[in-house]
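User
Please review the sequence:
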Amino acid sequence: MEQTLSSSEPLVRFGAFFGVFLAMALWELLAPRRPQAISRLQRWPGNLGLSVINTLVLRILFPAAAVGAAIFAESHGWGIFQVINAPDVVAILGSVILLDLVIYLQHRVFHAVPLLWRLHRVHHTDLEFDVTTGVRFHTVEILLSMLIKIAAVVTLGAPAIAVLVFEVLLNSTTMFNHANIALTRPLDRIVRLIVVTPDMHRVHHSVRREETNSNFGFSVPWWDWAFSTYRAQPADGHDRMIIGVEKFRNPANLHLSQMLLQPVRAED
């Protein structure tokens, strides 16, 4: 089974990515939440180009990815769930939940540490907010994130199937909560009890620093509630709030070359 998971992991992840991406892009086209002043033609080539580079680099440097790390740890009996011989359901559910907590904490650290913020601000310097913003991350951040994820997987002794489920959920919810899609307010209130919604996560992309340092969750809102980083709405309202980083408002920064160089640029 482990061999099957390892070989099918790229296909499963790509299939889920393509399906969710296409669904969100069509939803944005049919029912956009906010009008966009900067066209997709200006933004999407850079955002998607960066995603392609990240995928290729990860596959070259980490061909087995986090699922491979889980298989390796399981074969050696490493990790908490392996040591305590936890029942499958406990190991799978526990791993998915705890890996999501790790991503939440990692996200907060990347905001708090200046050097890491330089990497992460590539994600925040997008001047609009849509499904492609969810795949706009600097390559070095993606590599560091994979190392953190592998360390967490091995420490937990997470089952390979749990890691695959977590990866698919994380990628899917990230594209969903970055999408420029309209949910009615009553529906948003219900959905955000379980999953981070676009209106919830959009607050995190505000130019206001106090709002940027809130709503760190990618998949579930529970960690923001538990650690008091939840903010229900932006101060200026969703229609008037400004997306991005105050010091990087030039559309020229949307080019792929500028995104790759973003971490070495000063904010003043």
Remarks:
- The first helix runs from residue 2 to 30.
